[in-house]
């Protein structure tokens, strides 16, 4: 079974540093950033490159792997980790996020992290590729239009075949603009799905080789978040995911509501969050793990993290700057290549540009969370956070 131990708590906050030992023996030092390999691949990178960054854990997407190449094929390969040549700890999400991204969000300009608090019920509209009911989510494949019903039971079965060390109960991720009534209805549904997920997981995993995390929803409403934390937290999960939607300004607050109530002796994973400032807030609010596609997605579009904010490599000024992306950075890209070279690769549409940029961005985020962990252990978290924020300005593209 999964073992979670807390090494140090940060006084006056919910932050903690600890370790997770998976049932298969992998150890994760927390807080930790989970690298996203959606389709059993981190886009533009090899498994060897991921290892070279000292990444600790990789997460894959159940919905996408179910569609292609299929869970049965990955099971025959020995699980998605072996399939992609990754032998460290692994995670899979449940497919619940796609209930939002292919449902309410499909064709709408809405993200799970919203700006502002406008309320609009877009839970059902024509053209979406996911329809939610109490039974599950009916997906229309974005690949060929075929229909697939995801239920808590089928999600557990697919994740069992994908073979991850840590998996998530099936849940409904709602829109941040959804009104209270819909969020409440969704919350009740997610609780029932959590119970069904647990029951099917126990039938499948008789030797306790996979750890199942329950997912806390509730949107931006404190009452619902706290209700979810109490009800999901009372179930026999190995850890907890904090999912759903927030407004940009209240991630730390909403996460704090939840973590103040969840069992302290189990790990907490904040789903889909990876911006530097959000990571500080989430750690301070008691989260141990985070996953997000942002570092590599930004990289593929030429946006690079530095301690002084983002650098957009396609800007003309970088064509003649023969210095690293960031002085002092120890990643492969900064040790061997210049801003001018990356500017050339992106302007020439060379795929190597995306690889080198992804290496840098993942290195930056992984080292950031590693330093946050160190600052908890040596009681310098608040000073480090203040120092980092004083330099980092994500709203200003350089």
Which range best describes the helical content: under 10%, 10-25%, 25-40%, 40-55%, 55-70% or over 70%?
A: 25-40%
Instruction: Decide which structural class fits the backbone.
Output: alpha/beta
Hey, roughly how much beta strand do the residues contain? 15-25%
Shape: globular
Unreliable spans are none
Instruction: Profile the largest sheet.
Output: 8 strands, parallel, barrel
CATH architectural grouping of the largest domain? Alpha-Beta Barrel
Distance between the termini: 47 Å
Overall pLDDT score:
92
Spell out the CATH superfamily of the largest domain.
Answer: Queuine tRNA-ribosyltransferase-like
Predict the CATH topology of the largest domain.
TIM Barrel
Highest-level CATH class of the largest domain: Alpha Beta
Give the radius of gyration.
Answer: 20 Å
In short:
With 398 residues, this protein is an alpha/beta fold. Helix content is 39%, strand content 18%. The model has no long low-confidence stretch (mean pLDDT 92).
Q: Any overview of this molecule?
A:
This protein has 15 helices and 18 strands. Helices cover 39% and strands 18% of the residues. The protein is α/β, with parallel strands linked by helices and 398 residues long. The protein is globular and about 60 Å long. An 8-stranded parallel beta barrel has the order 4-5-6-11-12-13-15-16, surrounded by 5 helices. Helix 1 links the parallel strand 4 and strand 5.
Features of this protein?
globular; TIM Barrel; 3-stranded antiparallel sheet; single chain; alpha/beta; 2 domains
């Amino acid at each position: 079974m999964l073992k979670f131990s807390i090494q140090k708590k940060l006084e006056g906050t919910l932050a903690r540093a600890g370790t997770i030992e998976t049932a298969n023996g992998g150890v994760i030092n927390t807080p930790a950033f989970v690298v996203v390999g959606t389709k059993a691949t981190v886009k533009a990178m090899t498994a060897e490159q991921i290892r070279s960054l000292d990444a600790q854990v990789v997460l894959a997407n159940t919905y996408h792997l179910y569609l292609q190449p299929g869970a049965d094929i990955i099971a025959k390969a020995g699980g998605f980790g072996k399939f992609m040549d990754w032998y460290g700890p692994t995670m899979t999400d449940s497919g619940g996020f796609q209930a939002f991204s292919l449902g309410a969000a499909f064709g709408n300009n809405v993200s799970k992290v919203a700006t502002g608090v406008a309320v609009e019920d877009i839970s059902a509209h024509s053209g979406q590729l996911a329809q939610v009911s109490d039974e599950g989510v009916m997906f229309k494949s974005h690949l060929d239009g075929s229909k697939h019903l995801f239920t808590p039971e089928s999600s557990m079965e697919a994740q069992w075949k994908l073979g991850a060390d840590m998996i998530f109960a099936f849940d409904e991720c709602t829109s941040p603009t959804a009104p209270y009534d819909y969020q409440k209805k969704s919350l009740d549904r997610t609780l029932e799905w959590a119970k069904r997920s647990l029951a099917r997981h126990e039938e499948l995993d008789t030797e306790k080789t996979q750890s199942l995390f329950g997912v806390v929803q509730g949107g931006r409403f404190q009452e619902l978040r706290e209700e979810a934390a109490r009800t999901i937290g009372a179930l026999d999960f190995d850890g907890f995911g904090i999912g759903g939607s927030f407004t940009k300004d209240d991630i730390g607050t909403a996460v704090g509501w939840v973590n103040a109530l969840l069992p302290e002796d189990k790990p907490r994973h904040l789903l889909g969050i990876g911006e530097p400032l959000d990571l500080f807030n989430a750690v301070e609010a008691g989260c141990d793990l985070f996953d997000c596609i942002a570092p590599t997605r930004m990289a593929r579009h030429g946006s690079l993290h530095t301690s002084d904010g983002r650098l957009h490599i396609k800007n003309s000024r970088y064509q003649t700057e023969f210095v690293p992306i960031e002085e002092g950075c120890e990643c492969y890209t900064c040790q061997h290549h210049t801003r001018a070279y990356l500017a050339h690769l992106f302007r020439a549409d060379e795929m190597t540009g995306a690889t080198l940029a992804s290496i840098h961005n993942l290195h930056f985020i992984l080292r950031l969370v590693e330093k946050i962990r160190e600052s908890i252990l040596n009681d310098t978290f608040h000073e480090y956070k203040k120092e980092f924020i004083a330099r980092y300005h994500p709203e200003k593209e350089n």
